[in-house]
Amino acid sequence: MELPLSTWMTIEIWRTALVFLRIGTTFMLLPGFGEPAVPVRVRLLTALAVAFSCAQATPNMPVEVPGAWGMVFAIAAEMVAGGLIGTIARTIVAASLMAGSVIGLNIGLANVFALGLGPDQSAAIGAAIYIGLAAALFALSGHHAVLHAIVDSYAVVPAGHFLDIAAGARAVTLAGVQSFRLAGQLAMPFLLLALAFNVSLAMMNRALPALPVFMLASPAIVAAGLYLLAATAPGLIDQGTLAWDEMLKLLY
Questions:
Q1: What is the rounded end-to-end Cα distance, in angstroms, of the chain?
Q2: What whole-number distance in Å separates Cα of residue 98 and Cα of residue 52?
Q3: DSSP 8-state class, residue 110
Q4: Which tens digit of pLDDT belongs to each residue from 215-239?
Q5: Is residue 240 within 8 Å of 182, Cβ to Cβ?
Q6: Which of 18, 19, 102, 118 has its Cα between 20 and 30 A from that of 202?
Q7: How far, in Å, CA of 168 to CA of 159, rounded?
Q8: In Å, what is the CA distance from 160 to each residue of 61, 71, 107, 245?
């Protein structure tokens, strides 16, 4: 099939625009790329550069430029698909923020707040775990896996077509379930520490009612919690990276 140069350029620009819409929407939500500290212009320029690189490798691309309403339909479909990928990735990584809040509550540091990399205020411990997990994902090329997943998503959801609502809802639900399960796993050692510590304090208070147990125990629980955090931090990051690898399976 022979196409005039002007027609070929129009089709290529349309295909690149569709890829940019899906990748750009994903980058707005993706951990690391989509943080409030990263300017929107930088995110969009990065997504545009990635779109130019991936446009020729994406399957199931349209062969002609649709009309005005077809363009509106395709743009909405691509933004929904990109939003789904970004939401799933953000939901999985949000487990570190939930775990950090639970950890801070159980070791007496829940009143320490800091602005983390997430879109909202999070406890300092959760922000530290989140930053460590994001750094580990970039060091282990986890962002490359997401880019591969975006390109491979065109085999499941062709460009310009809406994804199946039931499949998308199922993927988001599974991501939420996995995020809560991961948060519970990360915070479990600190829950056990708090349980044992509080039971010990209750026994001491029962035996020595006049002893100021709370004043003596507060520094001890903070010191024990920080020591446990230092000992378990590598395992927390490792479990987060494993959950990130499992997240890619939710897209198919």
A1: 33
A2: 36
A3: T
A4: 777 778 888 888 888 888 888 888 8
A5: yes
A6: 102
A7: 16
A8: 8, 8, 50, 27
